[in-house]
Amino acid sequence: MKPSHNPLKLKERMQVPRQEMPQRDPGERARTFEEVNLGFGAEIAKREAMRCLECADPKCSNGCPVGVDVRAFVDLVLTGEFQAAAAKMREANVLPAITGRVCPQEEACEGACLLSKKVPSLAIGHLERFIADWEVSTNSVGLPALAAPTGKRVAIVGSGPAGLAAAGDLVQKGHAVTVFEALHEIGGVLIYGIPPFRLPRHIVRHEVDNLRRMGVEFQTNVVVGKTVTVDELFEEGYHAVFVATGAGLPKFLGVPGEHLNGVYSANEWLTRVNLMHAAQFPHYDQPVFDVRGKDVAVVGGGNTALDGIRVALRLGARKAYLLYRRSEKEMPARIEEVRHAKEEGVEFHVLTNPVEFLGDQDGYLSAARCIRMELGQPDESGRRSPIPIAGSEFTIPLSVAIIAAGTTANPLVQSATPDLVTRKGGYIVADGETLRTSKRGVFAGGDIVTGGATVILAMGAGRKAAAAIDRYLADAQWPAPAA
After folding, report:
1. Checking DSSP bridges between strand 153-157 and strand 384-388, what pairing results, if any?
2. What is the spatial distance between Cα 94 and Cα 63, in angstroms, rounded to a whole number?
3. How far is Cα 387 from Cα 153, in angstroms, rounded to an integer?
4. Residue 277 pLDDT > 90
5. How far is CA 401 from the centre of its chain?
6. What whole-number distance in Å separates Cα of residue 385 and Cα of residue 1?
7. Which of 36, 148, 266, 308 minimizes the number of CB atoms within 10 Å of its CB?
8. 3-state secondary structure of 370
9. 353, 376, 406 — which closes off a domain?
10. Who's near 69: CB < 8 A, 6+ residues apart?
11. How far apart, in whole angstroms, are the C-alpha atoms of residue 347 and residue 318?
12. Residue 387: beta bridge partners?
């Protein structure tokens, strides 16, 4: 058993309240893209670390999709060894400043924390963010050790969380790693899909720079499937390819009027805002419909929906509505994000679903015709099915509607790789354990395999793929497909 550095006895630790995350005032932050949460200071972090029970069998690590040694890094925070804590974290998680902000810890490590049986769980995510932010503020970095070069080259397609996690693990194993990104900036959904008030751009860039320091090479503006094919990557000398292109093709509702000007998919809305400097208008041209003084609604109940409508508020929307066909209890969004949205003034209309978008004579959105819903029996998702209430239709005046109804597979790589087996929706078929595809040397993971999920689950897939790729590069074994 590891020696304890905690001055408190177990019962005393449970009497220490969970430390609250400092945050900007709602009235101030609703009109700025500055980050909402402000982060722990060193003394708050150490006090929170004192709450750790130092379990002999840490369930928190078991609940983490990337397998972070939570007890070890929390102990290093407690003793003030912050750079060592960062290095310990990066052994399993090469993006701690990112996951410390956007990972749903309440469903993962914190959900498994034994403290939560009697008191609020250890604030693992806040501590994770603290050590990563400490690196930035002190201009230092705790990088893990690298193995000797193996002479093997790996191409990673996509620079989102799955691709970056795989890159970090593979370069630690001594392999030469190149990440190919279709857009002009590295980060995938982290940079184009999550607004800066939740995940500042400089944080993503700092984590990418840390991967560069570890030896990962990045190439932007390369559309694998168009600029270069998977087969051509092998011809160029790569020994393995990991496809992590995500699920970036938006879904719509399939109701009349979705063609109207002012109706966006959440993907387009957030990508335009995040990559085309909407927050810096008028210094940059406005990349989306001008919502100043206008009424805006988002349709959906996930984190993407909340991101979209909170962006609209910050761009000057007069009214900001969230329309969700189930009740708030069924919303998949993080509890913290729901709370933040309400504090900022987003109006929640649950058990409400649009059935038609209405436009003016010039083809611009003017209103949404909605219907009230009630909940029936659970469906395949485990949530109660929404059922329309006959005769309950009503109209909401709108200038912009943002559809956050989910996404499906990005089809580019598959379209140029005919021997890559896919399933319904265009998702790549990959083995659940090894993430091997039907094509020798090609692995796939993250949303392009599972469909839309969380950042941390995608990172877990990236780590699993990296381990499988490392084994393949060592033995070159590729089992024949099952008959």
Report:
1. unpaired
2. 18
3. 53
4. no
5. 23
6. 49
7. 148
8. strand
9. 406
10. 58, 61, 88, 91, 92
11. 11
12. 374
Residues in the chain: 483
Minimum mean pLDDT among 108-117, 442-451, 458-467: which range?
Answer: 108-117
pTM above threshold 0.70 = yes
Total tally of structural domains belonging to the chain: 3
**Residue 398 to residue 321: CA distance in whole angstroms:** 10
Measured CA to CA, the distance from residue 60 to residue 310 in angstroms comes to 31
Asked if the structure places residue 3 within a domain, the reply is no
CA nearest neighbour of 306 among 269, 275, 280: 269
To the nearest whole number, what is the mean pLDDT of the chain?
A: 92
Q: What is the CATH number of the domain that holds 314?
A: 3.50.50.60
Domain finish residue from 382, 406, 430: 406
Q: Do 160 and 246 contact (CB within 8 A), yes or no? A: yes
Of the candidates 51, 44, 55, the one whose C-alpha atom is nearest the C-alpha of residue 22 is 44
Phi, psi of 291 (to 5 degrees): -100, 5
Q: By the 8 A CB rule, do 59 and 110 touch? A: no
Cβ atoms 402, 421 nearer than 8 A:
no
466 confidence band (pLDDT: 50, 70, 90): very high
Q: What is the mean pLDDT of residues 39-60?
A: 92
Domain extent at residue 35: 10-138
pLDDT at 358: 98
Residue 239 is which amino acid? H
